[in-house]
Amino acid sequence: MKRRTYLAGLSAGSAAGLSGCLASLGSAGDSCDGNCDIGMTAVDFDPQEYEVSVGDTVTWKNTSSKGHTVTAYADQIPDDADYFASGGFDSEDAARDGWQQNEGVLTSGDTYEHTFEVAGEYDYVCLPHENSGMVGTIIVTE
Length: 142
Hints:
Blueprint: H1 2-23, H2 28-32, E1 38-40, E2 45-46, E3 49-53, E4 57-62, E5 71-72, H3 92-100, E6 111-115, E7 120-125, E8 135-141
Parallel strand pairs: 1-4, 3-8
Antiparallel strand pairs: 1-2, 4-6, 5-7, 7-8
């Protein structure tokens, strides 16, 4: 009987311990420690879709050990919107060329901010992890 009690307690303790670990994988709030809106894991933006209002500033933070970029797809942002990319590039072509020279890269702990002034959907990518599907969307509402 004592053995069953011990095993039951061990099982419950393990489940409780794991639930805390799994919970920490959940949201960008956890990975950002309250210091960003969107975190960057090994090959994902967290969250992949984020909604803000016109005039809001979004902060991305590299919460992983890999280098990342935030690079707007020029043909997938509103026509009147300012282009955005880590490294301050003014076009997607310039950002892609810069990435080849290791420019615009956010290393672990680095942040990038952009203020969205035009309503619409903005699709963006991490250039080094584009083939892994590291893309995100900002939805800007009035």
